[in-house]
Amino acid sequence: MKKHVSNARLILNALGNMTEFLKNQDTGDPDTLDPDECFNYPLEIIRQTLLFDISVLYKVSNVIEDMLILEVVRVLDPDGHRMDLKEGRKLRLYLDARDRRYVNEVNAFSTKRTSHINVSGMGCDIMGYVYFPRDFGGAYLVGGDYFGKDTGLHDFEISAMDIMCNMLSAILLKTRFKEKAEIDDLTGLANSGKIRHETERILKRFRRKPSSCACIAMGDIDFFKKVNDTYGHIQGDLVLKEVAAIISESLREYFDIAGRYGGEEFLLVFDETDGKRTMEIVERIRKTIEAHRFQQLSDTGRPVKDKYIQVTMSFGVAEMTGKSPACDPQDWIGKADKALYDSKQSGRNRTTFYQDSSAQGEDAPK
C-alpha cells in the first residue's frame, strides 16, 4: 500500500502558518522559551499535512565512539503503531545503521541533511536534521513514519521537510544567541549589560506612571578575595554559582531580576516593590547565604569529604518612585552602591537602606 500524496498547496499554506508561529516564538522572552515547544507545529504538519501516520522528535544526547544516543522528546502516534518510541526513552544506535528501523535517524545525523530511505513500515521513512550547536544543547532530528509498504515521497514533500528544518535551526539559533548575549556564563544570571538595561527600562516607565515604585539592591560577597586566596579560584567559582542559585530561587517570577554586576557583585532589581518589602526579601536572601554550607573543594576541584566553608554577603538597597528626583541608571545604582559601602563599614553581613542627605536621621522603611 502506498502513502497518500499530500497536497502541495496545503503544504505551502502550512509552511506559511509555521512561519507566523515561529515569529511569535521569536518575539517572546528567551528566558521562558522552551526549544522543544518550537517543534509542536512542525510535528503536526508532518502527520496531518504530509500525511504520515506518526511524527517524532529526537534530541541528540551524545555520540560515544560508534554509538549515537537519541532521546525521544515527543511522539504523535494516535494509533499506537510505534511502541518502541516512548517519550523520554533513550535509543542507542550504531552509526553503521545496522538496525534498519532507524536507518534514517542515523543517516540524517551523519549527513546533516534530510534522509528519506523507504523502510516499509519498520521505521521512520523521512527524517530531517535540525542544527543546534553542541554547547547550546545539541542537534534535533524530526521525522515521520508511514505504516505501509511504500511512501512514494515526492520532491516537494522532501523539500518541505528541508524548509521546516532550516527554519527551526534559524529560530533556535537566533533565540539562543540572544539569550547567551544577555546571560552571565558562570552564574546563569543576567549579565551586567542586561541588568543595567532593566534599570533603565524601569526609570523610563516612571515618566508614564508616576505612581510606580521600584527598588534595586547591590550585593557583594564579604572577603571574597580571601576565599580565592585560601581555597583557589575553582572554589571561588563554586561560591559564585551557589550564591547566584540562592538569589535566583528567592526572587519572585515576573517581578524581580538578578544579574552579576561584576566580579563578586550582584545587582537585584525589584519592580513594583517598595523599600519595606525589598528589605524583607533581601534580608531573607542574606540570612540564607549566611546559613548555607558551601562544599569545600580540593585544588583539583574534587569535593573534600565533610569539609565546608561559609561566606556572608552585604547589601545596599535604593528605592525609586515616580516622585523621586530624576536620575539616570548609574545614579540609581550609585545610591545602592553607597548603601552597600555603609554596610561594609558597619561590619559587613548586613543590609542598609539608602538615605539621601535630606532624609538623614530617618530610619529605613519599617
Protein described:
The chain is α+β, with helices and mostly antiparallel strands. It folds into 2 domains: 8-180, Beta-Lactamase (2-Layer Sandwich); 192-359, Reverse transcriptase/Diguanylate cyclase domain (Alpha-Beta Plaits, 2-Layer Sandwich), CATH 3.30.70.270. Helices cover 39% and strands 23% of the residues. It has 9 helices and 12 strands. The chain has helices at 8-26, 40-49, 103-111, 155-182, 192-208, 224-231, 233-250, 275-291, 329-345, and strands at residues 54-64, 67-76, 90-94, 126-130, 140-145, 213-221, 256-262, 265-271, 294-297, 303-309, 313-321, 351-353. The strands form 3 sheets. Strands 3-2-1-5-4 form a 5-stranded antiparallel beta sheet, sandwiched between helices. It has a 5-stranded mixed beta sheet with strand order 7-8-6-11-12, sandwiched between helices. Helix 6 (224-231) crosses helix 7 (233-250). The radius of gyration is 27 Å and the shape is elongated. The termini are far apart.
How would the blueprint of this fold be written?
Blueprint (H helix, E strand, L loop, with lengths): L7 H19 L13 H10 L4 E11 L2 E10 L13 E5 L8 H9 L14 E5 L9 E6 L9 H28 L9 H17 L4 E9 L2 H8 L1 H18 L5 E7 L2 E7 L3 H17 L2 E4 L5 E7 L3 E9 L7 H17 L5 E3 L13
Parallel strand pairs: 11-12
Antiparallel strand pairs: 1-2, 1-5, 2-3, 4-5, 6-8, 6-11, 7-8, 9-10
Helix pairs in contact: 1-2, 1-4, 5-9, 6-7, 7-8
Quickly give the CATH architecture of the largest domain. Answer: 2-Layer Sandwich
Classify the fold: give the CATH topology of the largest domain: Beta-Lactamase
Q: How far is it from the N-terminal to the C-terminal residue, by CA?
A: 78 Å
Q: Count the domains.
A: 2
> What's the count of strands?
12
Percentage of residues in helical conformation:
25-40%
Order of helices and strands: HHEEEHEEHHEHHEEHEEEHE
Share of β-strand residues: 15-25%
Strand order of the largest sheet: 3-2-1-5-4
Gyration radius, in Å: 27 Å
Query: Which segments are poorly predicted (pLDDT under 50) over 5 or more consecutive residues?
Result: 359-363
Mean pLDDT: 87
Shape: elongated
Number of helices: 9
Q: What is the name of the CATH class of the largest domain?
A: Alpha Beta
Please state the structural category: alpha+beta
> Please, what is the CATH homologous superfamily of the largest domain?
GAF domain
How is the main sheet built? 5 strands, antiparallel
